[in-house]
## 1
Amino acid sequence: MTDHPDPQPPAHGRVHLVGAGPGAADLLTLRALRLLQQADAVVYDRLVGPEILELVPAHAEKVFVGKMRDRHVLSQAEINRLLIALARTGKRVVRLKGGDPFIFGRGGEELEALALAGIPFEVVPGVTAALGCAAHAGVPLTHRDHAQTLVFVTGHTKDGEVELDWPTLVRPGQTIVVYMGARAVASLCARLIGHGLDPATPAALIENGTCQHQRTIAGTLATLPELVPDHHLLGPALIIIGQVVGLRARLAWLTELAEGPALAASEAE
Ligand SMILES: C[S@@+](CC[C@H](N)C(=O)[O-])C[C@H]1O[C@@H](n2cnc3c(N)ncnc32)[C@H](O)[C@@H]1O
């Protein structure tokens, strides 16, 4: 016995930072599935659907930590503390995030906190939304004839404005994928046109990609803002811009459920 025992018990637990993929449960990796089945606790976000949560064993603790724009159930700092606390009780913790944890998922921030606390961790990649949406919408993100460069950007706004490196984005021969850009679609398209991208450049918004209610609204940089009335968007949505979007006319293979006037308008194009 020492007079001053260490207030923290030794860390026996481990955190697995796992990508859940874009939505469809069968796009989980086998490794993700195995870890979910062995988990003592699963800490998950809003983008992780019920089909995937059904794979978590009944005895495992499930903790929803939210993350909806402007409405977080727990702050990032609280999530970090929760992961550390769960691991310190010796649990196998799965931190489950939509898509891939390192693509606009704050996975790096969570790992930094774990590293600082001395908690062992592992990372399991997931199918990011760009790949899932593109595949299910019939849009090859690269193509020898149309796109040699692929960029992923966030359309998250600061004071209502999207701030991106516009001169880089309007270079020819590239595909731009915008995460979290649905609310800013009008300003995004206007800024790209203003910086010299052809208004006739094909562009599409894909909502609920890979899920049962996927819908694709396709147009051009000039027309997309009118085709996407934002009150009709209920699920997560991604925007793809570039000549490759035009290939969808021949390559779209999925029959999407017709939903609402926005879809009708876009499909009429
Ligand atoms: C906070 S980011 C998380 C991205 C995630 N880590 C990934 O790799 O896909 C959330 C954004 O991802 C996109 N997203 C995620 N799942 C999607 C889906 N099934 N369909 C369309 N967009 C999706 C949307 O742009 C959404 O606003």
## 2
Amino acid sequence: MESIQAIKQRFEIIGNDAKLNRALEKAIQVAPTDISVLVTGESGVGKESIPKIIHSLSHRKHGKYIAVNCGAIPEGTIDSELFGHEKGAFTGATQTRSGYFEVADGGTIFLDEVGELPLTTQVRLLRVLENGEFIKVGSSKVQKTNVRIVAATNVNMFEAIKKEKFREDLYYRLSTVEINIPPLRDRKEDIHLLFRKFSSDFALKYKMPTIKLADDAVNLLLKYRWNGNIRQLRNVAEQISVLEQNRTITLETLRQYLPDTGNNLPAIVNNTKSDSDFSSEREILYKVLFDMKSDLNDLKKLTMELMKNGNVSEVTKDNESLIQKIYGNDDEEDATIEDLEVLSIPEKTSNDELPIENMQDKYHFAEEIEEEETLSLQDKELELIKKSLERHQGKRKLAAQELGISERTLYRKIKQYDL
Ligand SMILES: Nc1ncnc2c1ncn2[C@@H]1O[C@H](COP(=O)(O)OP(=O)(O)OP(=O)(O)O)[C@@H](O)[C@H]1O
Ligand SMILES: [Mg+2]
């Protein structure tokens, strides 16, 4: 049995993703049988190489391989294309013609976009699949053929069945083995690899130096949704390779080639994200809430230290980095270590418990902090919006994209905060 690596080389398949490898492995395993295979996956994921692999590794490899795009053939002629017609079967049928199922006898037919087949054709197809029988259009003579079928679809077949656009019995007959090709966004490790491969191919083709992505551009490449999958990635690599003079591609340049960058980012918070790197309003709020929670924990820790120790200057010294984390640097205007001392926690000279009234003061103090923190939720949002607008010289479209919110929402917030 040929190895996955050998198959990848032979069919120019790039990638090392485990799900892709599993799909190729399945294709290799099922190839020597006559089992029908349904290849599923979004548009542009690379479904078309699977039937070729299956055919070339099967005992039919010397027979014909015919790929039919079911979505591209008009409904009126598809039966005749697939099964042939008799002379005079319809206007223009001046001679008897063989269809693909007759021609491919002993070989393989790849039915691409099988979900697009009209229901009447689906009935004919079911019959071929069940007993190898078919009838030419306009004929009454049953013919036999021995064809292996591999079909592919990028539509949700269960939906199509529910809407009665696809026969359930045919679906089960076609999908004896189903091979799913994962979308590019789920093959994170392969994205940059593919981009580099395409870039180097296009550099050769257009006789220009190979483009290279800056680090932040690579991050965007990995986060982007790639609705058009590998086909879209290749187009982007080609466009940039041809159009960009500067061969180091920055984040901003890449953004111009990725439509709707804001909405195409999946809403998953990446641990390494910077403040400016949000995908949605919800993400902003999560970030603010996490920051608040962490601040609150730090404050709790500090308060506990003060309650235990009671010596402000000692606690301040011991917890310098924590205080700086909560209140910022000394040179920042808004909050300093002095602010902490204003909280007037009485210095304690012994290790005794704090008197009850002082403990109550602490609770009072904690409530105030909570209020302040709630207010700072808005401050943080305001700050994020301001920074983003500054970064994009007031260009709302770009700022909205960066913040992952619609321009309309941004406009509303600008009004709300009187920016
Ligand atoms: N792993 C891969 N390595 C290199 N190129 C790939 C790979 N997968 C797909 N491609 C390329 O991406 C393009 C799209 O692939 P393909 O035509 O097979 O998509 P598809 O899944 O059939 O999409 P659709 O459902 O829209 O027909 C092709 O040019 C193909 O050569
Ligand atoms: Mg295709």
